[in-house]
Amino acid sequence: MLEQKKYQFWFCTGSQDLYGDECLAHVAEHSKIMVEALNKSGNLPYEVVWKPTMITNEVIRKTFNEANIDERCAGVITWMHTFSPAKSWILGLQELRKPLLHLHTQFNREIPYDTIDMDFMNENQAAHGDREYGHIFSRLNMERKVVAGYWEDPEVQKEVGAWMRTAVGVIESSHVRVMRVADNMRNVAVTEGDKVEAQIKFGWEVDTYPINEVVEEVNAVSQADIDALVEEYYSKYDILLEGRDEKEFRQHVAVQAGIEIGFERFLEERNYQAIVTHFGDLGGLKQLPGLAMQRLMEKGYGFGAEGDWKTAAMVRIMKIMTQGKKDAKGTSFMEDYTYNLVPGKEGVLEAHMLEVCPTIADGKIAIKEQPLSMGDREDPARLVFTAKTGPAIATSLIDLGDRFRLIINEVECKKTEKPMPKLPVATAFWTPQPNLKVGTEAWILAGGAHHTAFSYDLSAQQMGDWAAQMGIEAVYIDKDTNIRQFKNELNWNSVFYRK
Ligand code: MN
């Protein structure tokens, strides 16, 4: 499900024929050296592909249109080695539909003091050419990422690598298909939204199926398949019987195994990558999908509870963006539950009724069964664990009626002071930046939801860049957030984004 696609990024160097063939030969040679070094650096998650120097309107337009139709190409990286008159770029840029990074760099790090002459100056003038090139984006009002710095610096390379993940999130967004087996929870506002507008803006297809169509698929799962998956669960997870009858416990676990297999088959057959459920709309299911949904999320599916298709799609996109990341710590659907307001120990306890992704687990994962206080079904089996510590981001995509807004909060995940032996769900605990008071005040002013798409493996910048490329508003809540300025920002944005 989360198999990493072999996306590529095209490296397009700008120049012109004013300086002669020898200069153009150097430009091509230099950019080839840079592409090779970038690919060898280990700092880029995807391959960079060298393209012949962009010197005329025709070459620029042709190359960008080839990028548009090449399914492997997730974006283009451009850089002006020499001066490249920007009018030559207008048509190509107007037709480009892939994310673009403007790498503002130059081939040599140091000025060659002893040998520098006008030939060198003409050949190595990114300081000059990149300004002309940057201007046309501003004139065209086109979104692009700008990264400035020396191309051999690991920090610059990592910035390019981080943007590559954003670009893949942009490209993959148009392939996200969300399956709903329930509507939005009655009377709930923040998880609602305009699905047509979401398809226009993000490309998401959000479809509904009667839950009992999926139940048929669940009921069709063979006993042998269920038994094999239950064996896998029992070998992989601790079993917390806590006085329950062992046989009955296993039968309940088997129900979740059937749900996992049945739902996954249904999703695969119809090419859906995200799903929403609702505890109040379970049709013929014997249990609320708990352990089953946790496992599907672990496999890379997006998930949203109570019909929350926006968060389901965001969880899917954020999982895709982190694909193949070394030492990844996890990405999950999450919900703000309850606070610790003790001075110096402030934080939010995060959980859900059941559905937290085990990729964020720290240490052992166990299966527990306990009645739900809501709904009218069997006590569902669920995976319980506590989440990892460290910095992470929580994001909420909301529909304000005239536009979408992405709220991005940097948070610091911690261990709770004491264990919570009676709490039968997986949990995380975090303090939002800049602190609980300002962080929550800002979140509430921005209209952020109680549901979030959460990740340890993406930065606020990557998500903000994603929103910018999607043409939607993003607001950051981080160490620099100040409520007065934040309120002004929301007010100013409401004017800027009004269409
Ligand atoms: Mn919820």
List keywords for this structure.
binds manganese (II) ion; 499 residues; single chain; alpha/beta; five-stranded parallel sheet; elongated; six-stranded antiparallel β-barrel
Number of strands: 19
Separation, N- and C-terminal Cα atoms: 37 Å
Whole-number mean pLDDT: 96
- Note the main sheet: 6 strands, antiparallel, barrel
What is the helix tally? Answer: 15
Rounded to the nearest angstrom, the radius of gyration is 25 Å
Question: Secondary-structure blueprint of this entry?
Answer:
Layout: E1 8-14, H1 21-40, E2 47-50, H2 57-69, E3 73-80, H3 90-95, E4 100-104, H4 118-123, H5 126-140, E5 145-148, H6 154-173, E6 177-180, H7 195-202, E7 205-208, H8 211-219, H9 223-236, E8 238-239, H10 246-269, E9 274-276, H11 291-298, E10 302-304, H12 309-321, E11 331-340, E12 347-351, E13 366-369, E14 381-384, E15 390-399, E16 404-413, E17 428-432, H13 436-446, E18 451-455, H14 460-470, E19 473-477, H15 483-496
Parallel strand pairs: 1-2, 1-3, 3-4, 4-5, 6-7, 6-9, 8-13, 9-10, 16-19
Antiparallel strand pairs: 11-12, 11-18, 12-17, 13-14, 15-16, 15-18, 16-17
Helix pairs in contact: 6-12, 6-14, 8-10, 9-10, 10-11, 13-15
The protein binds manganese (II) ion (MN).
What does this structure look like?
The structure is a single chain. This protein is of the alpha/beta class and 499 residues long. It is built from 15 helices and 19 strands. The protein has helices at 21-40, 57-69, 90-95, 118-123, 126-140, 154-173, 195-202, 211-219, 223-236, 246-269, 291-298, 309-321, 436-446, 460-470, 483-496; strands spanning 8-14, 47-50, 73-80, 100-104, 145-148, 177-180, 205-208, 238-239, 274-276, 302-304, 331-340, 347-351, 366-369, 381-384, 390-399, 404-413, 428-432, 451-455, 473-477. β11 (331-340) and β12 (347-351) form a beta hairpin. α8 (211-219) crosses α10 (246-269), α9 crosses α10 and α10 packs across α11 (291-298). The structure holds manganese (II) ion. Manganese (II) ion (MN) binds at residues 305-306, 335, 352, 451. Manganese (II) ion is lined by residues 305-306, 335, 352, 451.
